[in-house]
Amino acid sequence: MERPELPLPQLHAFVVLAEELHFGRAAARLGIAQPPLSQQIRRLEDKVGHALFSREPGRVTLTPAGRELLPAARRILAHLADALAAARAAGSGRVGHLRIGFAASLAPTVLPGLLRTFHERFPDVRLHIREMTTTPQLAALHDRSIDIGLMREPPTDDEPRLGFRTVLTEPFVAVLPRTHPLATRRTLRVAQLADSPFVLLPRHVGPHLHDRIIDLCTTAGFTPHVVQHAVEWQTVCALVEAGLGVSLAPASIRRIRLQGVTFRTIDPDAPHTRVAIAWRTDDRSPLVGNLLKAIDQDPPNSSRRTGCQGL
Questions:
Q1: Helix residue ranges per DSSP H, the chain
Q2: What are phi and psi of 209, to 5 degrees?
Q3: How far apart are CA 111 and CA 252, in angstroms?
Q4: Which of 43, 113, 126, 169 is the most buried (most CB within 10 A)?
Q5: pTM value?
Q6: If pLDDT is split at 50, 70 and 90, which confidence band does 4 have?
């Protein structure tokens, strides 16, 4: 059996009249004349099949049918108002779920300020944060399991369906055991690491960052002899501390505190590594748009961040 259509304007008129118990005041409150109000009430009574109001000279009262309908009518109108408010909030990106993948090295640097800024502006948006290296982030963006990626050294021209925006650049530093002969220098050149074994990130987890590090070495005149790989920068530093080799890394990993590791500035000026936010260019979600606006209005500043680990 087909359910009858809810007469929402009539329910609204009914509730207002039930509260005022006076056609003139109810009509004024609704912003209509009395005849249209009377018509609305009659139409609703026709649907119910019973009178909702007892009309006597100078006196309007609810009938038993009207008293029964009033609480339900109020609930329906309240639910509708809530639904409309929720729809408006979702349409403007003020509520909903936003899934963010991020490189672990950005957890104590770029990520906290970014999330804090967004959460302060949109406190009702639920954030789902996933730690992922660059390659899995790119795959997750394509298969729509995340909405935003925050990564190091994103691809430049081989991801046509994704947009990228640089949010931070930082120089590379040399990572040395404290017992290394170069550890006593304040600055050094990449070429001075040519004879040292290297600990690096595997290429498959972040090919562009890996290639940038290799390029630093080849530009300096040598191919690094890689003896160990580690996915996390914390692990890279631990292997360096153990004396297994040296590394080149983004400057923010200087915040890793290991007794047996030292970080040295590269001189002359070395190329910088890029941190970027990524999104699908066909994603029209207002949540994504609001996050990008938050970054524009409050760009990440490396001097305000702390800590580091991971790609």
A1: 8-20, 23-30, 34-48, 64-91, 110-121, 134-142, 207-219, 233-241, 286-297
A2: -70, -45
A3: 13
A4: 113
A5: 0.68
A6: low
User: How buried is 283 (Cβ within 10 angstroms: 0-12 exposed, 13-18 middle, 19+ buried)?
Assistant: middle
Token pair 């590594």 is at which residue? 273
pLDDT in tens, 74-132: 999 999 888 887 778 777 777 889 999 998 878 777 888 888 888 888 898 999 999 98
309: tokens are 């680990």
By residue count, the chain amounts to: 311
Residue 17 has which token pair? 């009249």
CA distance 72 to 66: 10
- Does residue 268 have a cis bond before it (omega within 30 degrees)? yes
Q: What is the pLDDT of residue 311?
A: 45
- The mean predicted confidence, pLDDT, of the chain is 87
Q: What is the pLDDT of residues 249-258, one digit of tens each?
A: 998 888 888 8
Q: In whole angstroms, give the CA distance from residue 42 to residue 36.
A: 10
Cα angle vertex 274, ends 147, 195, to 5°? Answer: 130
End-to-end C-alpha distance for the chain, whole angstroms: 60
Average pLDDT over residues 67-76: 93
The residue among 235, 224, 175 whose CA lies nearest residue 201 is 235
CA distance 230 to 146: 25
Go through the domains of the chain in sequence order and give each one's CATH number: 8-91 (1.10.10.10), 96-167+273-304 (3.40.190.10), 169-272 (3.40.190.10)
Amino acid, single-letter form, for residue 233: W
Instruction: Give the separation between CA 211 and CA 207, rounded to whole angstroms.
Output: 6
